[in-house]
Amino acid sequence: MQNLVSIVLPIYNGEKYMRESIDSVLHQTYQNWELLILDDCSTDTTPKIAMEYVEKDARISYYRNEENLRLPRNLNRGFSLAKGVYLTWTSDDNRYKPEAIETMVHALEQNRGSGFAFASCRIIDAGGKEIEYIMVNNYSKKCIVGSNSVGACFLYTRDVYKTVGEYDPEYTLVEDFDYWQRIMSRFDSVAIPEILYEYRWHDGALTSTMRKETFYTNLERMLLKNRPLFGKLDMEQKYFYYMGLYQCKKGLNHSQNPYQLPYRFYWLYHFVFYRVPNKVRRMLHP
To answer: How much is the mean pLDDT over the chain?
Structure first.
């Protein structure tokens, strides 16, 4: 018998694309799921559309917050209501490929020591046209110490949820990255190169309307906070870590960047001992 997968859908004024998002869940080849729609005080037709789906499918539930919680707390409320053995969340403007949930469940069940699976994504524009890709592989696990290499398609176990806890409201705009670091510093993970998700980039997306100052400030705070979780870093991990910190100050347009020297040192080391050898190997073995 298939284990239950809980999919949380946090939403605020998502009437434009939410049908596509919900339909992509309905069309999953893996059918033992529950979809929890968490409405964060929408003022458009989101509640009406959500209730249409609730009436059609008993696996879909709708909850409306009494006050606007914002994303991290809205996610926390959703997962407190979830019953699944496996957990994930999606966005109202994104959509799963039909085999997404089944593939990620299979990956975790075939790798019993792992608690987290994540997959490659296709980035699309407002009209659904392909823009680029977020491709993941085992190398993504090493990058996580300094850059969000997970993407937007993922699944984790209830044991992970019990161990790692809730999303942290103190890290708005990087709450997902913070969570992935907290997971991957404690649990083995499975990277799935297959494209299982379509992530929509458009003018209304959070990632294109975020305030740069809040984003980079919280990102720097988060990277510094989580650094001890990873223990001793190798030279390549140090490169990714200081690159992340360097980009924070650069994004804030700081004239004095305290991470510049360590970043340049580890960049040179990475270039000489990793990039050049890899390029030579590709040339010799095309």
So the answer is: 94
Taken in order 29, 38, 71, 45, the sign of the CA dihedral is positive
Matching residue, tokens 């909850």:
63
Q: Which residue has the tokens 């709450």?
A: 175
pLDDT surpasses 60 at 206: no
Report yes or no: 201 and 91 within 8 Å, Cβ to Cβ.
Answer: no
What's the token pair of residue 6?
């809980």
Mean local confidence (pLDDT), 26-50: 98
Cα separation of 100 and 87, whole Å?
13
Token look-up 């919280």 returns 218
What does DSSP assign to residue 275? Answer: I
pTM recorded for the entire structure:
0.93
Q: Is the pLDDT reported for residue 204 higher than 60?
A: no
Pairing state between β 114-124 and 188-200:
parallel
Instruction: Write the DSSP assignment of 106-163 as a string of letters.
Output: HHHHHSTTEEEEEEEEEEE-TTS-EEEEE---THHHHHTTTS--S-SEEEEEHHHHHH
Q: What phi and psi, each to the nearest 5 degrees, are found at residue 66?
A: -75, -25
CA distance 209 to 203: 7
Contact 23, 128 (CB under 8 A): no
Q: Using a pLDDT cut of 90, give the percent of the chain over it.
A: 87
Distances (CA, A) of 203 to 94, 133, 165, 215: 14, 18, 32, 17
Rg (CA), the chain: 20
Q: Using CA atoms, how far apart are residues 137 and 191, in angstroms rounded to an integer?
A: 5
Identify the pLDDT of residue 280.
73
